[in-house]
Amino acid sequence: MIELNLADCLDAVAEINADAEALIQGDRHFRWAEVEQRANNVATWMKRCGVSHGGKVAVYTYNHPAYMEGCYAAMKAALVPVNVNYRYREEELRYLLDNADAEAVIVHQEFVPILARVAPSLPQLRAVLVVGDGKADLGSLPSAEAYEDVATRSADQLAVKRSPDDLLFLYTGGTTGMPKGVMWRQADLYRRLAGGGLFPPPPDMEAFRAFAANPPIRMRTLIGPPLMHGTGWFTAIIAWLGGGTVILMEDPTHFDAAALFRTVARTKPTTITIVGDSFAKPMLRE
Protein backbone atom coordinates (compact mmCIF):
# COMPACT_ATOMS: atom_id res chain seq x y z
CA MET A 1 0.00 0.00 0.00
CA ILE A 2 1.26 3.48 -0.90
CA GLU A 3 1.85 5.54 2.25
CA LEU A 4 3.15 9.06 1.55
CA ASN A 5 2.78 12.40 3.30
CA LEU A 6 1.59 15.31 1.14
CA ALA A 7 4.09 17.82 2.54
CA ASP A 8 6.95 15.42 1.78
CA CYS A 9 5.66 15.18 -1.78
CA LEU A 10 5.32 18.96 -2.20
CA ASP A 11 8.82 19.46 -0.78
CA ALA A 12 10.10 17.07 -3.44
CA VAL A 13 8.24 18.99 -6.18
CA ALA A 14 9.73 22.26 -4.91
CA GLU A 15 13.24 20.82 -4.97
CA ILE A 16 12.90 19.31 -8.45
CA ASN A 17 11.02 22.21 -10.06
CA ALA A 18 12.51 25.06 -8.04
CA ASP A 19 12.43 27.63 -10.84
CA ALA A 20 9.08 26.63 -12.33
CA GLU A 21 5.86 28.52 -11.57
CA ALA A 22 3.84 27.16 -8.66
CA LEU A 23 1.28 29.94 -8.10
CA ILE A 24 -0.11 32.80 -10.18
CA GLN A 25 -2.62 35.47 -9.21
CA GLY A 26 -2.75 38.61 -11.30
CA ASP A 27 0.74 40.08 -11.49
CA ARG A 28 2.04 37.88 -8.68
CA HIS A 29 4.01 34.86 -9.88
CA PHE A 30 5.63 32.53 -7.35
CA ARG A 31 8.25 29.94 -8.21
CA TRP A 32 8.20 26.60 -6.43
CA ALA A 33 11.32 27.49 -4.42
CA GLU A 34 9.59 30.67 -3.20
CA VAL A 35 6.38 28.88 -2.25
CA GLU A 36 8.29 26.24 -0.30
CA GLN A 37 10.28 28.86 1.61
CA ARG A 38 7.21 30.96 2.36
CA ALA A 39 5.30 27.88 3.56
CA ASN A 40 8.27 26.93 5.74
CA ASN A 41 8.34 30.41 7.26
CA VAL A 42 4.63 30.22 8.09
CA ALA A 43 4.95 26.68 9.44
CA THR A 44 7.85 27.71 11.70
CA TRP A 45 5.88 30.72 13.02
CA MET A 46 2.86 28.57 13.88
CA LYS A 47 5.00 26.13 15.83
CA ARG A 48 6.68 29.01 17.67
CA CYS A 49 3.23 30.29 18.63
CA GLY A 50 2.64 27.00 20.41
CA VAL A 51 0.30 25.24 17.99
CA SER A 52 0.42 21.62 19.13
CA HIS A 53 1.50 18.62 17.05
CA GLY A 54 -1.52 17.70 14.95
CA GLY A 55 -3.21 21.00 15.84
CA LYS A 56 -5.83 22.41 13.49
CA VAL A 57 -5.20 25.42 11.21
CA ALA A 58 -8.37 27.03 9.87
CA VAL A 59 -8.01 28.77 6.50
CA TYR A 60 -10.63 31.51 6.33
CA THR A 61 -9.85 33.53 3.23
CA TYR A 62 -10.77 34.15 -0.38
CA ASN A 63 -8.74 32.43 -3.08
CA HIS A 64 -5.26 33.82 -2.54
CA PRO A 65 -1.66 32.52 -2.58
CA ALA A 66 -1.96 32.42 1.22
CA TYR A 67 -4.66 29.75 0.92
CA MET A 68 -2.41 27.29 -0.91
CA GLU A 69 0.70 28.28 1.05
CA GLY A 70 -1.18 28.09 4.34
CA CYS A 71 -2.40 24.54 3.71
CA TYR A 72 1.13 23.56 2.63
CA ALA A 73 2.56 25.24 5.76
CA ALA A 74 0.16 23.38 8.03
CA MET A 75 1.10 20.04 6.48
CA LYS A 76 4.82 20.88 6.66
CA ALA A 77 4.43 21.43 10.41
CA ALA A 78 2.40 18.20 10.87
CA LEU A 79 -0.70 20.30 11.52
CA VAL A 80 -4.16 19.83 10.03
CA PRO A 81 -5.57 22.27 7.42
CA VAL A 82 -9.25 23.07 7.93
CA ASN A 83 -11.37 24.80 5.29
CA VAL A 84 -13.72 27.59 6.41
CA ASN A 85 -16.64 28.82 4.33
CA TYR A 86 -16.20 32.60 4.31
CA ARG A 87 -19.94 33.05 3.92
CA TYR A 88 -20.60 31.73 7.42
CA ARG A 89 -22.37 33.91 9.91
CA GLU A 90 -21.11 34.36 13.42
CA GLU A 91 -22.69 31.29 15.05
CA GLU A 92 -21.66 28.99 12.20
CA LEU A 93 -18.09 30.28 12.36
CA ARG A 94 -17.92 29.87 16.13
CA TYR A 95 -19.33 26.36 15.84
CA LEU A 96 -16.86 25.26 13.18
CA LEU A 97 -13.74 26.68 14.85
CA ASP A 98 -14.78 25.13 18.15
CA ASN A 99 -15.78 21.82 16.57
CA ALA A 100 -12.45 21.61 14.75
CA ASP A 101 -10.45 22.66 17.85
CA ALA A 102 -8.74 25.27 15.67
CA GLU A 103 -5.52 26.54 17.27
CA ALA A 104 -4.53 28.87 14.41
CA VAL A 105 -6.50 30.82 11.80
CA ILE A 106 -5.35 32.32 8.51
CA VAL A 107 -7.99 34.97 7.84
CA HIS A 108 -8.64 37.55 5.14
CA GLN A 109 -8.75 41.00 6.67
CA GLU A 110 -12.37 41.48 5.56
CA PHE A 111 -13.38 38.74 7.99
CA VAL A 112 -11.30 39.93 10.96
CA PRO A 113 -14.27 41.67 12.67
CA ILE A 114 -16.39 38.51 12.78
CA LEU A 115 -13.40 36.41 13.89
CA ALA A 116 -12.68 38.94 16.64
CA ARG A 117 -16.26 38.59 17.90
CA VAL A 118 -16.04 34.79 18.21
CA ALA A 119 -12.39 34.56 19.38
CA PRO A 120 -13.15 35.12 23.11
CA SER A 121 -15.20 31.90 23.11
CA LEU A 122 -12.33 29.89 21.56
CA PRO A 123 -9.81 29.30 24.38
CA GLN A 124 -7.77 26.94 22.22
CA LEU A 125 -7.02 29.67 19.62
CA ARG A 126 -3.32 30.58 19.81
CA ALA A 127 -2.32 32.33 16.59
CA VAL A 128 -3.88 34.40 13.80
CA LEU A 129 -2.40 35.45 10.47
CA VAL A 130 -4.21 38.20 8.56
CA VAL A 131 -4.17 38.23 4.76
CA GLY A 132 -4.50 41.67 3.16
CA ASP A 133 -2.94 45.10 3.05
CA GLY A 134 -2.20 45.27 6.77
CA LYS A 135 -4.96 47.77 7.67
CA ALA A 136 -6.99 45.40 9.83
CA ASP A 137 -7.07 45.96 13.60
CA LEU A 138 -5.28 42.95 15.09
CA GLY A 139 -5.38 44.06 18.71
CA SER A 140 -8.19 41.76 19.85
CA LEU A 141 -6.79 38.58 18.31
CA PRO A 142 -4.18 36.29 19.94
CA SER A 143 -0.61 36.42 18.55
CA ALA A 144 -1.93 38.14 15.43
CA GLU A 145 0.42 39.21 12.64
CA ALA A 146 0.16 40.11 8.98
CA TYR A 147 0.47 37.02 6.80
CA GLU A 148 2.89 38.61 4.35
CA ASP A 149 5.24 39.71 7.15
CA VAL A 150 5.47 36.15 8.45
CA ALA A 151 5.69 34.54 4.99
CA THR A 152 8.68 36.73 4.07
CA ARG A 153 10.45 36.44 7.43
CA SER A 154 13.13 33.89 6.63
CA ALA A 155 13.36 30.90 8.95
CA ASP A 156 15.54 27.81 9.02
CA GLN A 157 14.02 24.66 7.60
CA LEU A 158 11.52 23.25 10.05
CA ALA A 159 12.42 19.87 11.52
CA VAL A 160 9.23 18.01 12.46
CA LYS A 161 8.12 14.39 12.37
CA ARG A 162 5.48 13.95 9.66
CA SER A 163 3.40 10.87 8.92
CA PRO A 164 1.14 9.43 6.22
CA ASP A 165 -1.49 9.41 8.99
CA ASP A 166 -1.43 13.22 9.24
CA LEU A 167 -4.90 14.57 8.50
CA LEU A 168 -6.74 17.15 6.45
CA PHE A 169 -10.25 18.26 7.47
CA LEU A 170 -12.84 19.10 4.82
CA TYR A 171 -15.99 20.68 6.27
CA THR A 172 -19.33 20.64 4.50
CA GLY A 173 -20.93 23.96 3.66
CA GLY A 174 -23.61 23.77 6.33
CA THR A 175 -26.55 23.63 3.90
CA THR A 176 -27.94 20.48 5.62
CA GLY A 177 -27.51 21.57 9.22
CA MET A 178 -24.34 22.64 11.00
CA PRO A 179 -21.07 22.04 9.11
CA LYS A 180 -19.65 18.54 9.39
CA GLY A 181 -15.96 17.74 9.13
CA VAL A 182 -14.66 14.87 6.98
CA MET A 183 -11.24 13.67 8.16
CA TRP A 184 -8.88 12.56 5.40
CA ARG A 185 -5.58 10.74 5.96
CA GLN A 186 -2.95 12.34 3.76
CA ALA A 187 -1.88 8.93 2.43
CA ASP A 188 -5.45 8.28 1.28
CA LEU A 189 -5.58 11.69 -0.42
CA TYR A 190 -2.26 10.92 -2.10
CA ARG A 191 -3.58 7.64 -3.53
CA ARG A 192 -6.62 9.44 -4.95
CA LEU A 193 -5.09 12.71 -6.15
CA ALA A 194 -1.47 12.02 -7.07
CA GLY A 195 -0.58 11.18 -10.64
CA GLY A 196 -2.33 14.37 -11.68
CA GLY A 197 -5.69 12.71 -11.06
CA LEU A 198 -5.31 11.19 -14.54
CA PHE A 199 -2.67 8.49 -14.02
CA PRO A 200 -2.00 5.88 -11.31
CA PRO A 201 -0.30 7.41 -8.24
CA PRO A 202 3.45 6.79 -8.20
CA PRO A 203 4.00 3.85 -5.81
CA ASP A 204 6.85 5.31 -3.75
CA MET A 205 8.83 8.53 -3.26
CA GLU A 206 11.44 7.62 -5.86
CA ALA A 207 8.72 7.10 -8.47
CA PHE A 208 6.98 10.27 -7.33
CA ARG A 209 10.14 12.32 -7.80
CA ALA A 210 10.52 10.92 -11.32
CA PHE A 211 6.87 11.77 -12.06
CA ALA A 212 7.26 15.33 -10.74
CA ALA A 213 10.34 15.85 -12.88
CA ASN A 214 8.68 14.65 -16.06
CA PRO A 215 4.88 14.32 -15.79
CA PRO A 216 2.87 13.16 -18.83
CA ILE A 217 1.00 16.49 -18.57
CA ARG A 218 2.50 19.56 -16.87
CA MET A 219 -0.77 20.91 -15.50
CA ARG A 220 -1.54 24.61 -15.28
CA THR A 221 -4.89 24.64 -13.53
CA LEU A 222 -7.07 27.76 -13.38
CA ILE A 223 -9.30 27.54 -10.31
CA GLY A 224 -12.76 29.06 -10.83
CA PRO A 225 -14.56 28.13 -7.57
CA PRO A 226 -13.44 28.96 -4.03
CA LEU A 227 -10.58 26.90 -2.64
CA MET A 228 -12.67 26.55 0.52
CA HIS A 229 -14.78 23.99 -1.39
CA GLY A 230 -13.48 20.52 -2.11
CA THR A 231 -13.69 20.92 -5.89
CA GLY A 232 -11.42 23.95 -5.86
CA TRP A 233 -8.88 22.69 -3.34
CA PHE A 234 -8.67 19.09 -4.57
CA THR A 235 -8.14 20.10 -8.20
CA ALA A 236 -5.51 22.60 -7.06
CA ILE A 237 -3.61 19.97 -5.08
CA ILE A 238 -3.87 17.59 -8.05
CA ALA A 239 -2.00 20.18 -10.13
CA TRP A 240 0.63 20.62 -7.42
CA LEU A 241 1.14 16.89 -6.95
CA GLY A 242 1.69 16.72 -10.70
CA GLY A 243 4.49 19.27 -10.43
CA GLY A 244 2.30 21.92 -12.04
CA THR A 245 0.92 25.41 -11.49
CA VAL A 246 -2.17 26.74 -9.71
CA ILE A 247 -3.68 29.88 -11.28
CA LEU A 248 -6.13 32.00 -9.27
CA MET A 249 -8.49 34.68 -10.52
CA GLU A 250 -7.24 38.17 -9.77
CA ASP A 251 -10.51 39.17 -8.08
CA PRO A 252 -11.69 36.14 -6.09
CA THR A 253 -14.68 37.81 -4.43
CA HIS A 254 -17.11 36.99 -7.26
CA PHE A 255 -17.18 35.07 -10.54
CA ASP A 256 -16.70 37.08 -13.75
CA ALA A 257 -16.69 35.03 -16.96
CA ALA A 258 -15.05 37.80 -18.99
CA ALA A 259 -12.26 38.06 -16.43
CA LEU A 260 -11.83 34.28 -16.54
CA PHE A 261 -11.29 34.32 -20.29
CA ARG A 262 -8.85 37.22 -19.99
CA THR A 263 -6.95 35.15 -17.43
CA VAL A 264 -6.96 32.19 -19.82
CA ALA A 265 -5.50 34.35 -22.59
CA ARG A 266 -2.82 35.73 -20.29
CA THR A 267 -1.76 32.61 -18.35
CA LYS A 268 -2.40 29.78 -20.85
CA PRO A 269 -3.82 27.13 -18.49
CA THR A 270 -4.16 23.51 -19.56
CA THR A 271 -7.18 23.00 -17.29
CA ILE A 272 -10.04 25.09 -15.92
CA THR A 273 -11.95 24.02 -12.80
CA ILE A 274 -15.63 25.08 -12.68
CA VAL A 275 -18.72 23.89 -10.82
CA GLY A 276 -21.85 23.32 -12.87
CA ASP A 277 -24.15 25.80 -14.53
CA SER A 278 -23.34 28.68 -12.18
CA PHE A 279 -20.01 28.83 -14.03
CA ALA A 280 -20.80 27.16 -17.37
CA LYS A 281 -23.77 29.32 -18.36
CA PRO A 282 -22.03 32.68 -17.84
CA MET A 283 -19.01 31.27 -19.71
CA LEU A 284 -21.21 30.21 -22.63
CA ARG A 285 -22.88 33.63 -22.74
CA GLU A 286 -19.49 35.35 -22.70
Number of helices: 11
Strand order of the largest sheet: 2-1-11-10-12
Order of helices and strands: HEEHEHEHEHEEHEEHHEHEHEH
| Number of distinct beta strands | 12
- Overall average residue pLDDT: 95
The largest sheet is: 5 strands, mixed
Gyration radius (Cα, Å) is 18 Å
> Strand percentage, roughly?
15-25%
Which class of secondary structure composition applies to the elements?
Answer: alpha/beta
Span from first to last CA? 46 Å
| Low-pLDDT runs | none
- Morphology: globular
Helix content: 25-40%
Q: Would you mind describing this structure in some detail?
A:
This protein starts with 5 loop residues before the first helix and ends with a helix. The protein is globular and about 50 Å long. Helix 1 packs antiparallel against helix 2. The strands form three sheets. A five-stranded mixed sheet has the order 2-1-11-10-12, with helices on both faces. Strands 4-3-5-6-7 form a five-stranded parallel sheet, with helices on both faces. It has a two-stranded antiparallel ribbon with strand order 8-9. Strand 10, helix 9 (230-241) and strand 11 form a beta-alpha-beta unit. The mean pLDDT is 95. It is of the alpha/beta class and 286 residues long. The chain is built from eleven helices and twelve strands.
For the structure shown, list the relevant keywords.
11 helices; globular; single chain; 5-stranded mixed beta sheet; alpha/beta; 5-stranded parallel beta sheet; 286 residues
Please outline what is shown here.
The protein has 286 residues and is α/β, with parallel strands linked by helices. It contains eleven helices and twelve strands. Helix 2 packs across helix 3.
